[in-house]
Every structure is written in structure tokens, then in C-alpha cells.
């Protein structure tokens, strides 16, 4: 019986995340923000692969794909923003360079990230055993 409970618990843990896709527009930080603190408390560095998003939890790993040229980059969310209407994510200069958007400044993108699902009641029941 304990084996069945353990198997159910393992299955629940492996289905606790789902991949989310979000379409939007990416831009990148101005140089004046280099060295300043981000909303997460980390110091912003243009040479790191980081980004700002309005709602994603700090530490979320996001794969960003430039829909204009197909280039991709993986970034970590460590700040809030962008604060320009119509934009979805603000990238560090290094991330923007990898996406090939330094010249135009903005690009249509698709974001992919894992979103944690809330655990079903069965999960908490199984924890008792």
C-alpha cells in the first residue's frame, strides 16, 4: 500500500509544472540602469542574461525567441517591468544582443517558461502517510 502511495506522490510531483507560452514585444535596458539595484535586490548588470517581467516570480527561467529572426536566449527574471505600454519583457543588453535586437531596439517575441501548478488536495492527503 505504501508503494502505491509513493508512486502516486511521484506522479503528482512530475506533473506539478506546465510550460506556458506568452507572445509579446521585447526591449532592452538603457545603459544608465547598469549597476543599479533591481526589484529583486540584485544589482543589474548589462553583461548578464537577465530580464524584467511584470508578473513572473523572481528566479523564473524564461526562453525568449525573436520571431523576426528565430534567435533564442535563456534569461532569468530578476526585475519588474517593462513600464512602456505594449512591451512584455525588458532584457539585459547581452540578452538583446543574442536575440539580434540591438539595432532596432524592440522585437516581437515568444516567451516560454514553466509555471507551477497548485497541488491538488490528493497531494496533501498522501503526505500524511
TrEMBL record:
Q: Give the domain of life.
A: Bacteria
One GO process term, biological-process aspect: cell wall organization
Grouped into one coarse class, the protein's main location is membrane
Membrane topology, as annotated: Lipid-anchor
| Role noted for this protein | Lytic transglycosylase with a strong preference for naked glycan strands that lack stem peptides.
Keyword Lyase found: yes
What's the protein called, per UniProt? Answer: Probable endolytic peptidoglycan transglycosylase RlpA
Amino acid at each position: 500500500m505504501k508503494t502505491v502511495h509513493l508512486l502516486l506522490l511521484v506522479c503528482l510531483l512530475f506533473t506539478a509544472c506546465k510550460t506556458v507560452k506568452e507572445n509579446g514585444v521585447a526591449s532592452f535596458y538603457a545603459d544608465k540602469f547598469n549597476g543599479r539595484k533591481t526589484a529583486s535586490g540584485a544589482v543589474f548588470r548589462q553583461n548578464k542574461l537577465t530580464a524584467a517581467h511584470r508578473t513572473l516570480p523572481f528566479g523564473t527561467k524564461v526562453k525568449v525567441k525573436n520571431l523576426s529572426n528565430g534567435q533564442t536566449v535563456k534569461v532569468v527574471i530578476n526585475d519588474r517591468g517593462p513600464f512602456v505600454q505594449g512591451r512584455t519583457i525588458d532584457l539585459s543588453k547581452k540578452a538583446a544582443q543574442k536575440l539580434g535586437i540591438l539595432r532596432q531596439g524592440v522585437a516581437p517575441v515568444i516567451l516560454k517558461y514553466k509555471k507551477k501548478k497548485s497541488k491538488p488536495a490528493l497531494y496533501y492527503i498522501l503526505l500524511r502517510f
